[in-house]
Amino acid sequence: MKTRRQSGKNANGFTLIEVLVTSSIALLVMGGTLSVAMWTMRRAAWARQMGYAQTETMKSSSHLRYCIRNAVAVNAIDESGDWVELRMPNGSVSRITYWNPTETRGMGQLVYMDNIASSTAVQRVVSEGLTKVMSVPSRNVFHQTSANTLRMAYRITEPLSPQACPQEIEFSVELRNN
Asked: Is the peptide bond before 137 cis (omega within 30 degrees of 0)?
C-alpha cells in the first residue's frame, strides 16, 4: 500500500510539543549546573576565609609567644585586659595592646610596641581582623594567671566579612627570662 503525501504540509522540522519538552529539559540541566557552580563558589569563599583565619592564628600566636617568653616580668596589665606591659631583659618596657578603633566586629588589631619610653619606639601590628572572645564565660584578651604566666584569648575573623569564619585562640605563655 502506498501512502500519499499531503501537499501543502511540510514534513520536515519539529512540532511545538517537541520544542517545549526539549527546552524544559535544557532549562533543568542548566539550572542544576548553575546551582552546583554557585555552591562551589560559596564553599571556595568559606575555605579561603577559614585559611585566612588559621594562618593569622598561627602567625600571631607564634609572634606573641616569642615576645612574651623573652620578657623578664609582667610590668602592668589593664583591668579590662586590653593591654599588657612587659619588662624586657635590657630594662626596657614593651607593650602589647588590643585595639579596636571602631568597635566593629572583626576590625581590631594586636599592636606590639618595642620600647614605650622611647620616642622612636617601633610599633608593629601583630594581627588584624580581631574581636574579643565572645564565648561564655567572657574573657579578657590579657590575663595574668600567675607571677610568671600570661594568658591571652582573642578571636580572628576576616575584616568586614558577613560570613566570616572565626578562629578563637587561647594560650598561656610562661616568661622564661626571670
From this structure: yes
Q: 166-175: per-residue pLDDT in tens?
A: 677 888 888 8
Burial (0-12, 13-18, 19+ Cβ within 10 Å), 156: buried
Q: How far apart are CA 156 and CA 169, in angstroms?
A: 8
- Least Cα distance to 98 among 75, 128, 66, 61 occurs for 128
Distance CA 143, CA 89 (A): 21
- Read off the pTM: 0.67
Q: How far is residue 136's CA from residue 153's CA, in Å, rounded to a whole number?
A: 13
Which pLDDT does position 20 carry in this prediction?
A: 95
Q: What pLDDT, on the 0 to 100 scale, is given for residue 18?
A: 93
28: helix, strand or coil: helix
* 155 closest CA partner among 97, 124, 123, 109: 109
How far is residue 76's CA from residue 150's CA, in Å, rounded to a whole number? 11
Rg of the chain in Å (alpha carbons): 31
Do 93 and 85 contact (CB within 8 A), yes or no? Answer: yes
Amino acid at 144: Q
Exposure on the CB side of residue 78, measured as CA atoms within 13 A: 14
The identity of residue 101, as a single letter, is P
